[in-house]
Amino acid sequence: MNDWIRVCTVEEIPAQGARVLRQAGDIDIAVFRTAADEVFALRDRCPHKGGPLSQGLVHGKTVTCPLHSWTIELDTGNVRAPDTGCAGHLPVRVEAGEVFVRLGRRHG
């Protein structure tokens, strides 16, 4: 599946928060909105212990996992040092306030 799907509007994602896109038989996707209204998508699973990133704290272009405070870059899915790993980033586009995520093209 390599299609873009409409997720929601930018306004439907809380500022400095996330919205979850439930996937049947796959890992859920967390769609994040920064304070600057940038939108990013990651697998909703921390690479450390599987914590729900959608419940983490968004600050700048990062999210902190609610379980053990690992910090993940929203634009790449990479974990910040000294920790290592990747949450898996998905391409996002915003058109006229509508958010689209491209499934099947995970990075990381």
From TrEMBL:
An example Gene Ontology biological process: nitrate assimilation
Ranges in coiled-coil conformation: none
Molecular function per GO: 2 iron, 2 sulfur cluster binding; metal ion binding; nitrite reductase [NAD(P)H] activity
SUPFAM superfamilies recorded: ISP domain
Keyword Cell inner membrane set for record: no
Domain Rieske: 4-101
Keyword annotations: 2Fe-2S, Iron, Iron-sulfur, Metal-binding, Nitrate assimilation, Oxidoreductase
Record-annotated membrane-spanning stretches: none
KW tRNA-binding (keyword) present: no
Matching PANTHER family: 3-PHENYLPROPIONATE_CINNAMIC ACID DIOXYGENASE FERREDOXIN SUBUNIT, FERREDOXIN-RELATED
NCBIfam families: nirD_assim_sml (TIGR02378)
The protein's name: Nitrite reductase small subunit NirD
